[in-house]
Specification:
Elements (H helix, E strand, L loop, with lengths): L14 E4 L3 H6 L6 E12 L5 E5 L8 E10 L5 E9 L4 E8 L4 E3 L6 E2 L3 E4 L2 E4 L7 E9 L4 E10 L2 H5 L2
Antiparallel strand pairs: 1-5, 2-3, 2-4, 4-12, 5-11, 6-12, 7-8, 7-11, 9-10
Length: 166
């Protein structure tokens, strides 16, 4: 059975933008205004239906992985209008479980819209299948000085059969 070890390394391309804090970020070149800590957890459900998570660096097909990106404001002033983006790694499928709930999604990592994503097929508007989602983005109104905000998304590692057909 193939083991996938891309969990954390595949998501290191986290993007971070803030329309109102570009000057603040430039002023703090020596110390990052916002730091990002990424972690991955395997989601486990026991026989009683209780959910737990355990830190993970490798995954197998069909494992459910929860990615968490913790954004910390390292400044003495609030950071406002932060766009926190969490890519959905290749060979995984978004499970429509994220926090905070108001995430936008993207199929290309550039153009974001409210979920469920939709597209025109002929004369009909249809939902875009979850396997096509490649990134999530949240608008964080404000992170107070010295505080953190965490965003999360759950994915399932594609099965070997699905991965081999790509």
């Amino acid at each position: 059975m193939r083991v996938m070890s891309y969990l954390v390394s595949a998501v290191v391309a986290l993007s971070l933008t803030s329309a109102t804090n570009v000057a603040l970020a430039k002023a703090n070149v020596a110390k990052e205004a916002i730091s990002i800590e990424l972690s991955a957890y395997k989601v486990l459900i026991n026989q009683k239906g209780e959910v737990s998570v355990t830190s993970v660096t490798q995954a197998k097909p069909n494992d459910v992985i929860e990615y968490r990106a913790k954004y910390t404001n390292n400044t003495t002033k609030p950071v406002k209008g932060l766009l926190a983006t969490l890519p959905i790694p290749a060979d995984t499928q978004f499970l429509a479980k994220s926090s905070p709930a108001q995430a936008q999604a993207s199929t290309d990592g550039v153009n974001f819209a409210a979920m469920p994503l939709k597209r025109k097929v002929g004369t009909q508007t249809v939902n875009i299948p979850l396997p096509e989602y490649r990134a999530l983005r949240w608008t964080i109104a404000e992170i107070p000085a010295g505080q953190s905000v965490t965003v999360t998304a759950q994915t399932r590692v594609n099965s070997l059969a699905a991965a081999e057909t790509k």
